[in-house]
Write a structure and sequence with these properties.
This protein has eight helices and ten strands. With about 230 residues, the chain is of the alpha/beta class. It has a six-stranded mixed β-sheet with strand order 6-7-8-3-9-10, sandwiched between helices. A hairpin with a 2-residue loop joins β9 and β10 (about 215-220). It is globular, with a radius of gyration of 18 Å. The protein binds adenosine-5'-diphosphate and magnesium ion. Magnesium ion binds next to α1.
Amino acid sequence: MIKLRNVSKIYPNGARALIGVNLKIAKGEFVFLVGPSGAGKSTLIKLLYREEIATRGQVLINNVNLVRLKNSQIPALRRNMGVIFQDFKLLPNKTVFENVAFALQVIGKNKKEVKESTLTVLDLVGLSSKVNAFPAELSGGEQQRVCVARALVNRPGILIADEPTGNLDVDTAWGIVDLLDKINKYGTTVVMATHALQIVEQMNKRVVRVEGGKIIEDKAEEEVRLGI
Ligand SMILES: Nc1ncnc2c1ncn2[C@@H]1O[C@H](COP(=O)(O)OP(=O)(O)O)[C@@H](O)[C@H]1O
Ligand SMILES: [Mg+2]
């Protein structure tokens, strides 16, 4: 489903963010991307949703090479992909319902579909009682749940998260990770970059360690569980 072949990313200022990265992620996997600040995690994630373009190599999503993707094909790519970030990026003047519904309205879904899908996904993330609240009226954890709902409302095959718990306390962070785990169990592939080592250690998922723009370790779920 996701394949990086010999991928390098050099930014225009000369920063070598990724060097010769090879990575394969199968449909339905849950993968943590870990590594120190500046390692290249966010760059790798940005290549996956075509926010950045690889300088060398291939980035394949369902056999489509994003390096060669036309700009006009980007919306179709992103429709199969939900993305969440550390800062919540919610629209402050829209309610919870409107923030999530917006993602469907822009792709031309009719009113009934928008309402049904939005309420279903807000129920999934546990926010049924907050549909009419504004972002500023919510806790950080609740705001991140709205972002998860917004990312999922199109029913994407892949959910990508860049430090989604970076602004949350430990308990709230666990709530978000448990939610991502539940979503993964329904079949969505999840790729999550994180600094939260305690969470990574306890989750028994595949761990890909990035350092200096290279993958220096890739531990399968089974190895993590057995502590190999
Ligand atoms: N837009 C950019 N322009 C230039 N250099 C960048 C840009 N984004 C990231 N970098 C550089 O690329 C390297 C990897 O950064 P990043 O992917 O953000 O790492 P991480 O998410 O692991 O902290 C760093 O050296 C960073 O300074
Ligand atoms: Mg980052």
